[in-house]
Amino acid sequence: SLNQFDKAIQNYMKALKINPSATDIQNNIGVLLAKKNDLETAIRWYKTAIENKPNFFEAHENLGLAYSKAGQLNKALNCLKAARAISPQAATPHFNMGNIYMKLNEFYEAIQCFKRAIALEKNYSGAYSNLGIALRLTGELDESIESFKKALALDSNDAETFNNLGIAYLDNSETTNAISSFTSAIKINPELAEAFNNLGNAYQEHGNIKEAKKYYKKSLSISPTYALAYFNLGNSYRSEGKFKEAVENYQKAIKYDRDYADAHNNLGNALQDLGNLDLAIKHYEICADINPDY
Question: Which of 19, 149, 206, 257 is deepest in the core (most CB within 10 A)?
């Protein structure tokens, strides 16, 4: 709890009075503040530690992570590059840089970083997992699947990785394998709404609309504001010719994500199916405003 963090910070402050230039303590205060999400103050403490000890690897890396969390991605990269220069054999700066390149949609750069992290630490399951995501996003589906499998061989209890493996299988038109992967994710984490939604997609792809709807609804029972699951449920209803139910679900998708261009477009289609052309045109226009390339 925050109270525990505050107590720990108070104890560190007392220790600093005795030894004002203790860089480990300055770094640890930063770590606790970052956990409390007080990133601005955390950043100040990391900088203080680095001023007192310029080659302090952990402080450079933690400063990079704090900047990343604060959305200052270029500053984050510079800090992680400094950490890498201090400790060239450490895998974590490469891994963390890969995550920042992912946020910047620079997937090829991310792939190189994750591969370097793995070269330095061959059992780095997180690096294999994130490499799998980056490879999928560049269309390297077979490599992506292999990378997820390596991650799971190292950590077979990772629901997110099973979920991501399922997405890669689905992209690769391996529906049966996708269903198996999403089912494994749900067994490990029965509260993973995304995996239920994706399992719905796999059954939809399989032509089993009844099962698809069941899993979209399960996903929404876990996460009632999940716009994508409402959108997918709307698509299922529309494919059955149940246009009124489709409209209701597209409307909910838009309620929770106002700038959801696909939902506005499909809502327009379902309204047109019901003969409500004026309202359909309104939603097509909103879709075009959100995404002029639609």
Answer: 257
